[in-house]
Specification:
about 10% helix, 3-stranded antiparallel β-sheet, single chain, mainly beta, flat, 3 strands
C-alpha cells in the first residue's frame, strides 16, 4: 500500500520531504497519508483535528488515523 506525505500529498517514498517534515512540527497535516485526499482541518488554541472523508478523524494527540471514523479528542 502506497503512503503519501501528509503535508504536500506527494508519494512518501519519492522525493525528499525534509521541508515537509520540518513544517509539520508546527502545522497540522493537510492530506490523508493513506489515500491522499485533502482533509478538513480545524486548529484551536488547544490543538488541532483533521478529518479524512474516507478514514476518519486524526487529532493532535494521536499519531495515526483510526480505521473507523470517530471523534478525535484534543
Amino acid at each position: 500500500m502506497e503512503t503519501y506525505c501528509d503535508r504536500c500529498g506527494g508519494p512518501a517514498d519519492r522525493d525528499d520531504h525534509a521541508a515537509c517534515r520540518a513544517a509539520r512540527r508546527m502545522e497540522p497535516p493537510r492530506y490523508c497519508a493513506r489515500c491522499r485526499r485533502r482533509m478538513i482541518v480545524q486548529v484551536t488554541p488547544l490543538g488541532w483535528t483533521a478529518r479524512c472523508a474516507e478514514h476518519g478523524d486524526l487529532g493532535s494527540d494521536a499519531e495515526t488515523t483510526p480505521d473507523t471514523p470517530g471523534r478525535a479528542r484534543t
